[in-house]
Automatic annotation (TrEMBL), chain A:
The chain crosses the membrane at residues 24-46, 88-112, 124-144, 206-231, 252-274. It is found in: Cell membrane. It comes from the Bacteria. It comes from Actinoplanes palleronii. This is Dipeptide ABC transporter permease DppC.
Automatic annotation (TrEMBL), chain B:
GO terms for molecular function: ATP binding. Belongs to the ABC transporter superfamily. Gene3D superfamilies: P-loop containing nucleotide triphosphate hydrolases. The gene is oppF_2. CDD domains: ABC_NikE_OppD_transporters. This is Peptide ABC transporter ATP-binding protein. Keywords: ATP-binding, Nucleotide-binding, Transport. Residues 8-252 form the ABC transporter domain. InterPro entries: AAA+_ATPase, ABC_transp_ATP-bind, ABC_transporter-like_ATP-bd, ABC_transporter-like_CS, Oligopep_ABC_C, P-loop_NTPase. The lineage of its organism: Bacteria, Bacillati, Actinomycetota, Actinomycetes, Micromonosporales.
Length: 287, 325
């Protein structure tokens, strides 16, 4: 029995090298890492200005000086792709962070407190879930001016209830454990019990779900900027690039295919990473 | 012997589960019980009779549905806030499950220090000293403090649990089947350690167990519980000389003996514990009692004093002590 406790949890999963097993899982981790790397360091390596217009519009792939050609305004497509990773990943990560903060916080309080507090909080979450997410996000985003702030707020708020549900279930399970009762007997107050006793013991499954949420957030972020509710031009952004490229779908399909494929690959890879985390952290999978 | 002073007084204590609608399980039903300063009261009964719930309700980790809990004469049933946390630091508990009762993510020293830091607001350096001493006293050694629970065996974990319960210098400890999850070979060590520490400090203990052998070893008085009710209270010697309730008689007859005396008649209880959501009418034990008559099926007996310090909930208590059956 004691072996299972040593190998459960994130630390155990890392120690037992249970993460990234199999080509799909390993590949997904690498892809996500690459995207993050490109978003952070890419603009330092690809020095071409993604917003500088030139007379050389719609140059093809492999044109001299423009590896991926240029778009309809003669801007370097490679630079736009590399710079475009930043807003997507930034919005995806920040909104997932906001969703995790709200969702885990609300869910944990509901699950631990139980009773009326739980009822009120979870019915609020149900109410939020009853709206189609995209509609809710558009509602929130259009209440502000489009930009990173409103995107993060909208996506984060829309994704929080799903996480809250899981957090509630996990926290409710922990709340009945003897060590939580022992902490109460020792005079530890509820906020400290939540942070010190409950949260660390639900972190594993919660983390897997949060990473899954990351892929959904990325999908929403791309979708919104495609609709023009995201990062505003001329800042390059994959979602908007897909929309702008549609006009030239037959003459230069790469203008749509490249940003769309990049978005898709990132979303799918995040999903597999979440899957892998969940499998690695699942105590049943270890026995 | 000094006059016994009540430390904990339970009055009509009731714990229901399952809310108002539907099946309401009455786990603890109007229990009156007094625990005197310095004694160890053994609470026995079969699984599901409500003894753990009673123990938990006594220190309010499970909130009672009704009745009152008095500690040193003061009603603590509805006490809240800082004052409650202060008071309850004096009421501690050793849990049954050595695996579930320690947070796997924290070090042993942190676990044991927690009640000192929170309820007692002991400064950290002093708490450290107390924790080190406690870990020595429970036989783990202060080096154990830096390790985590999963590095210890079940018996060692119970020692950690005992150290934690004793950390805030309590006056009363509920031990909820503290050894039932352990190998028989180490049960005695843990029981003796607990008994010694309780005695040295002059603490009062509610010792919950279904093991009469263990209870005989450690308890001064015995309370027998059946279907959420106390059905017999007696001193240990009186009880083991001959229980007054037919249920106690059956329980005792199930304990194997090593003596050369003619074997006591083995009384087998048939059937299971009745559904606590729908207890039988009359005496709750009549469905399994071999002495049951019509009166038992209709009229519920009250807990009545049949001899000095001896209470029984039965229309026909088995008194005076009979000869070998």
């Amino acid at each position: 029995m004691s072996e299972s406790t040593t190998t459960s949890g994130l630390r155990g999963a890392l120690a037992a090298r249970r993460l990234g097993r199999g080509p799909l899982a390993a590949g997904s981790w690498i892809v996500v890492a690459l995207f993050v790397l490109v978003a952070i360091a890419g603009p330092l390596l690809v020095t071409a200005d993604p917003t500088r217009n030139t007379a050389d519009a719609l140059l093809p792939l492999g044109a001299s000086g423009h590896l991926l050609g240029t778009d309809d305004l003669g801007r370097d497509e490679l630079a736009r792709m590399v710079h475009g990773a930043r807003p997507l990943l930034l919005v995806a990560f920040l909104s997932t962070g906001l969703a995790a903060l709200l969702g885990v916080g609300i869910g944990m309080i509901a699950g631990y407190a139980g009773g009326k507090v739980e009822w009120v909080l979870m019915r609020l979450m149900d109410l939020a879930l009853a709206f189609p997410s995209m509609l809710l996000i558009i509602l929130i985003v259009s209440a502000w001016s489009p930009g990173v702030g409103s995107l993060v707020t909208g996506i984060g708020t829309a994704l929080a209830p799903g996480l809250a549900r899981l957090a509630r279930a996990l926290a409710a399970r922990e709340a009945g454990r003897d060590y939580v009762l022992a902490a109460r007997l020792g005079g530890t107050r509820a906020p400290r019990i939540l942070v010190q006793e409950v949260l660390p013991n639900m972190a594993g499954p919660m983390l897997a779900q949060v990473v899954m949420t990351l892929s959904i957030a990325a999908g929403f972020a791309a979708g919104l900027s495609y609709l023009g509710l995201g990062i505003q031009p001329p800042t390059p952004d994959w979602g908007y690039m897909v929309q702008a490229g549609q006009e030239f779908l037959y003459r230069a399909p790469r203008l749509v295919v490249l940003p769309a494929a990049a978005t898709l690959i990132f979303v799918v890879a995040c999903n597999f990473v979440g899957d892998d985390l969940r499998d690695a952290l699942d105590p049943k999978g270890t026995r | 012997m000094k006059l016994p002073t009540p430390l904990i007084e339970l009055e009509k204590l009731r714990v229901d589960f399952g809310g108002s609608g539907g099946r309401r399980v009455r786990a603890v039903r109007d229990v009156d019980l007094t625990i005197y300063q310095g004694e160890t009261l053994g609470l026995v009964g079969e699984s599901g009779c409500g003894k753990s719930t009673l123990g938990r309700a006594t220190v309010r980790v499970t909130e009672p549905t009704g009745g009152t809990i008095r500690y040193l004469g003061a009603d603590i049933t509805t006490l809240r806030g800082a004052h409650f946390r202060q008071t309850r630091a004096e009421l501690q508990m050793v849990f049954q499950d050595p695996f579930g009762s320690l947070n796997p993510r924290r070090t042993v020293a942190d676990i044991v220090a927690e009640p000192l830091l929170r309820a007692r607001r002991t400064p950290r350096p002093e708490a450290r000293r107390i924790v080190d001493d406690l870990l020595d006293q429970v036989g783990l050694g202060r080096e154990a403090g830096t390790r985590r629970p999963h590095e210890f065996s079940g018996g060692q974990r119970q020692r950690i649990g005992i150290a934690r319960a004793l950390a805030p210098a309590p006056t009363f400890v509920v031990a909820d089947e503290p050894v039932s999850a352990l190998d028989v070979s180490i049960q005695a060590q843990v029981i003796n350690l607990l008994a010694d520490l309780i005695r040295e400090r002059g603490l009062t203990m509610l010792f919950i167990s279904h093991d009469l052998g263990v209870v005989r070893h450690i308890a001064d008085r015995i309370a027998v519980m059946y279907l959420g009710e106390i059905i017999e209270i007696a001193s240990r010697d009186d009880f083991f000389a001959g229980p007054a309730h037919p249920y106690g008689e059956a329980l005792l007859s199930s304990v194997p003996t090593l003596s050369r005396q003619p074997r006591r008649e083995r009384i087998e209880l048939t059937g299971d514990l009745p559904d606590p959501a729908a207890p039988p009418a009359g005496c709750t034990f009549h469905t399994r009692c071999r002495y049951a008559v019509d009166r038992c099926r209709t009229e519920a007996p009250a807990l009545t004093e049949v001899a000095a310090g001896r209470q029984v909930r039965c229309h026909f208590p088995l008194l005076p002590v009979k000869g070998p059956a």
